[in-house]
Design goal:
mainly alpha; Tetracycline Repressor, domain 2; single chain; UbiA_prenylTrfase_CS; 16 helices
Length: 320
């Protein structure tokens, strides 16, 4: 019945319908270079590249070949960009349902899915080639390939749509940037590389769940079975604290095994305890206050990661 009415209405006013289609087509903004830039999610690239740089520096101990460093960072950035673009491709229908993502080039219809798919694959392949041949590190390329596979297929295509464990699974791929930077210099995965991997792995869930609490209704509307959506804020806050508390001994071990100095030890311990205290305070927050708390935790997690990455570089110099 509804289809029939719609068809008859369009038929009886065909000139106006044609005008509407024409005007609608004219109103669509053209694709720009900025759209291609935004597809790679530059905020994610920059923050992860910072940790990759720190991982490279921890392995190099300031004995750096600058050309190799630049090539390695370029390769890592391209691999990550390939993953984020393919993430956009797979999430296009769900992004269209979320307020903060519906105006992106792909869900808004300004860019075709096929173009985005080819763009993501091209970036990923070039990035892996740069790591393998340019940085002369097959191991770095292998870790990058594993991270790319985990992020695109295991996390985005599977767990993100089906399970509250999606953030945990995604953390494995998200923790590879500092490991790639580290193995590009060391040529091996040793204790230092594993500790850097564990550091970023543990950082990610509380960081992302804070955003999940803040944007809970958007994720619910889009159909993401995120932990806050499925289990609620209380369970999510407990889970956040578990990861944050474990971060402290991991950062301590980086000093204990001689990869960084005592400045990093003191700084990471203090910052980790502050983060834990802020998380515990979250149990007192409800309603709008909870949203404000989640925003603060999210922003603090970024500050925490930035400061610790800087301290890694500085305190590596002190022990080199």
């Amino acid at each position: 019945m509804e289809n029939q009415i719609s068809y008859e209405s369009a038929s009886s006013a065909s000139p106006k319908a044609s005008e509407l289609v024409e005007n609608s087509t004219d109103s669509v903004e053209p694709v720009t270079l900025k759209d291609f830039y935004r597809l790679v999610k530059p905020g994610i690239i920059y923050s992860n590249l910072m940790t990759a740089f720190a991982g490279y520096w921890v392995a190099a101990h300031w004995q750096v070949t600058w050309t190799h460093l630049i090539i390695t960072m370029l390769g890592i950035a391209l691999v990550m960009a390939g993953g984020t673009v393919l993430n956009n491709y797979l999430d296009r229908e769900m992004d269209a349902k979320m307020e903060r993502t519906k105006n992106r080039a792909l869900p808004s219809g300004r860019m075709s899915a096929n173009v985005v798919l080819r763009y993501g694959i091209t970036l990923g392949v070039i990035g892996l080639a740069v790591l393998y041949f340019g940085a002369n590190s097959p191991l770095a390329a292998l870790v990058g390939l594993i991270g790319l596979f985990l992020y695109v297929w295991l996390y985005t295509a599977w767990f993100k749509r089906t399970s509250v464990w999606s953030t945990f699974v995604g953390a494995f791929s998200g923790a590879t940037p500092p490991l790639i930077g580290y193995v590009a210099v060391s040529g091996t995965i040793d204790v230092g590389g594993l500790l850097l991997f564990a550091f970023l792995f543990l950082w990610q869930p509380p960081h992302f769940w804070a955003l999940g609490i803040r944007r809970m209704e958007e994720y619910r509307a889009a159909g993401f079975p995120l932990l806050p959506v499925v289990k609620g804020s209380y369970i999510t806050k407990i889970s956040m604290i578990r990861y944050i508390v474990l971060l402290v001994p991991v950062t301590v071990m980086l000093t204990a095994f001689g990869y960084v100095g005592y400045l990093f030890l003191f700084g990471s311990t203090i910052l980790g305890l502050i983060w834990a205290y802020m998380s515990v305070k979250g149990f007192q927050a409800t309603g709008e206050a909870e949203v404000v708390w989640a925003k603060r935790i999210f922003l603090y997690s970024i500050i925490y990661l930035t400061l610790l990455s800087i301290l890694m570089v500085i305190d590596t110099m002190r022990i080199s």
